[in-house]
Design a protein that fits this description.
Blueprint: E1 2-3, E2 14-17, H1 31-42, E3 46-50, H2 55-64, E4 69-72, E5 77-82, E6 87-92, H3 96-103, H4 106-116, E7 121-122, E8 133-136, H5 146-158, E9 162-165, E10 169-173, H6 179-191, H7 195-201, E11 202-206, H8 212-217, E12 220-223, E13 240-241, H9 246-260
Parallel strand pairs: 1-13, 2-3, 2-11, 3-4, 11-12, 12-13
Antiparallel strand pairs: 4-5, 5-6, 7-8, 8-10, 9-10
Helix pairs in contact: 1-9
């Protein structure tokens, strides 16, 4: 990974970013990170959160944060707030009927995981999710090793879920969608940016294995410094890396984009 300073920001029109441990620091949104987001949005760049967090959180973020859209639950949907119409617009990968049927199957899968991986727990934000199962391995429970997270992911895959490990949860869902597919759909539908243009003009910053498709696709892919904790568990590395971790690293990314555009 090259240092962030090597990234040529002259063609970057916008920034997509993960939330947990990318914008947040130790589970908190700092004033510096939020202010950086606000400055970037005010500059006219496209600003979009791309997260594994639940629909309930994404509703709030789309309405109240300085963002143009939110891709949530690892690519299950994107939301954006139409200020002119004063209405939240919701766009899902699956139909309402399919989402309801899939949710009904999660309880049995979760029961097996909790039984076979001691110390993990159903995520505290599970009640606000519409499309996936989230198992906590280090957010509200004493931190488990990454090997335990990989075991959780393996059990999900045995149950025919797509499974991804984040910095705090292991998420599983029915279907082959991911953050990248929904992010590209959002950029096409919301901003008329087709994939080849988006690849060259949109940057992405993240911190964990479930960001790998984003790191691979975008020419301007960035990791905050704490990405180093995943070591050999990261299948695809970002092209650039910040000096600072988490929210401070996010601030560095914004400052770099604004100073060199």
């Amino acid at each position: 990974m090259a240092p962030l300073e090597a990234l040529d920001a002259s063609e970057v029109r916008g920034l997509l970013f993960d939330l947990d441990d990318t914008v947040t620091t130790h589970g908190k949104l700092t004033s510096a990170a939020y202010a950086a987001m606000e400055r970037l949005h005010a500059s006219g760049r496209i600003v979009v959160a791309v997260t594994g967090r639940p629909a309930g959180w994404c509703d709030h973020i789309a309405r109240m944060w300085p963002v143009d859209a939110v891709v949530g639950e690892n690519g299950a949907f994107y939301f954006w707030y139409d200020a002119r119409a004063r209405r939240l617009e919701r766009h899902y990968h699956d139909s309402s009927k399919a989402r309801q049927a899939n949710r009904a199957r999660f309880a049995e899968i979760a029961e097996r995981i909790l039984r076979e991986v001691p110390g993990c727990a159903l995520s505290a934000d599970q009640p606000y999710r519409e499309t996936d199962l989230a198992i906590d391995y280090c957010e509200d429970v004493p931190a488990l090793p990454l090997e335990s997270a990989e075991r959780i992911a393996a059990l999900m895959r045995e149950a025919r879920l797509t499974a991804k490990v984040s910095s705090i949860h292991v998420n599983g869902w029915f279907g082959a969608y991911d953050k990248l597919g929904m992010a590209l759909r959002m950029l096409r539908e919301r901003f008329a940016l087709e994939s080849p243009v988006a690849r060259q003009t949109i940057a992405f910053v993240g911190d964990s294995p479930n960001d790998a498709p984003m790191f691979e696709f975008f020419s301007h892919s960035i990791g905050v410094a704490n990405i180093a904790q995943f070591g050999g568990h990261l299948s695809i590395a970002p092209r650039y890396v910040t000096q600072e971790e988490a929210g401070a690293g996010f601030v560095q990314v914004v400052e770099h984009l604004l100073a060199r555009a």
